[in-house]
Amino acid sequence: MNWNFEILPDFIFNGLRDGAVYGTVALALVLIFKATTLINFATGELAMLGAFFVYVLNVEQGWWLWLSIAVAMAVSAVIGAAVERALVRPFDPDDHLPVVLITLGLFLIINAVAGDIWNYQVRRVNDPFGHFPSWVPNGSELKTSSDGTIACLKNADGDLVEVARGTADADMCEMVGRTFFEVIGARLHYRTIGTWIGLALALIALAIILGKTKAGLAFRAVSSNAESARLVGVNTGRTLGFGWALASVFGTLGAALVSPALGGVNPNMMLTILIYALAAAALGGLDSLGGAVIGGLVVGLIKSVLVSWFGVVVLGQAYFSILQLAMAFLLILIVLLFRPAGLFGTRRIERV
Amino acid sequence: MTDMMLKVENLHARYGAVEVLRGLDFEVPDGNVVVMLGANGAGKTTTLRALCNMCTTSGTIEMEGDDISRSKTADIVRRGVAHVPQGRGTFPELSVMDNLKIGAYTRKDKEVSADVDRWFEIFPRLEERRDQLAGSLSGGEQQMLAVARALMCRPRLLLLDEPSLGLAPLIIEDLFERFAQLNKETGLTMLLVEQNANLALDMADYGYVIESGEIALHGPAEQLKNDPAVQEAYLGA
Q1: What is the pLDDT of residues A110-134, one digit of tens each?
Q2: What is the pTM of this model?
Q3: Which domains does chain A have, with CATH numbers?
């Protein structure tokens, strides 16, 4: 047993960073579940598509990164609403199997089409939070590894401090500056903070949309009681389309935030993230938006601290790293078994 | 002659292959309270749902002279039809306040919050619980909320589906007093489906008895009350 507490904060930060991404994707799952009580298995692939839009606009077309993300979110909203209108609404909402099969089919189709267009190589994207250029402190010297994947600063004491890994290539390293703060001896990457801010802003926006707008009130009403919502004059179909649009926006945001950390975009980038997001949503309660976020953070922490730190570092068992996904399934299983409504979900009580 | 709020002719309705309504004719005069009696499964609830285009129908449904049988539910609500469904139909995960606000969904005027205050005055229990989730209210409070929510769309025709279901006798009496008061003070037209025939006929001007999706009997409420067949079947005499 090697209780290496020194590096634990690093794992906590990483866990909370990944967790924020899972939470964002789980929000997309929960939004659709709340409205229709079905799991949209295409959530991850719709998000992947959104991340590719960011790639096309920003990297290929040279648009400003934030504008690219905003436009990709808007396009995703339209696609989400179109999918609902064309592939979900024609089916009986009370018969879940056909619609779940459709979302599974959509998952495969989007993945295949994206693979056909962009092939399955990882395409590097720009990191909105990765590095601040020209940050080379006085007395330091920038060094890069020969293959350009690691950038280091040689500080005044002559120690090499790693500042970037994975995303840096030879010419980028000229630009590389520091990518993290040091907090309690651990690296808190700008990207991590950026992901948290992204999730926080998404939550605030969602709270305002659902809590303060008429469309949001209609969405909550349809989620709560679709029949009564129709009886007060709500167009339930259009409201569900609105929910799908919102969900796609959050999925795209999550994918755009995570893609730099994955080294770039590729059609399979969301496969495992979707599993973790499902675990997060199940843990938080499939109909609880706050639960999705907390569930995401918890799943991220479990994966990073319990599996990677405790399993790999403390127990010294490298095979723990391949159990991360299995852990997510195990978590889903345990939650469904002992607390089907999750931590914050509604336990349905039917008054007869 | 009174103007007709609602004039229904040869109304058929079906769920899938099952025909539930088999040619109903009935009328609801403006300002009146009309009650529909009938056993479970006779088609009372379906009749109300058919009026709001919540199921597949044929026949004509005229509201103030216009055929609304093909109108969308939202347009029917906009015309002033409010429906309090069986089992109250509140939104359990929404606060009392939000339940009232969604009731005014089709309205575009600025007087929504004034109306909220007005119904809070009439149902003070709801004001005390304005921020509570509707699902946490008692059955009686939920029924009040369902009625207040329906009134938020400023209806001219209120459809009430078994409002007394599952409520204690004292609460039912209180509720029916409020209905009568509403009808008297605002002239609100009501179509009431009820198992509690005594109370309903006391309040109503006119009544219909439905059996197996057809009108078996109809007449002024007073007359129905004294009809031996009605007494035996619905008044427990």
Answers
A1: 999 999 999 999 998 888 876 544 3
A2: 0.86
A3: 5-127+190-338 (1.10.3470), 131-178 (no CATH)
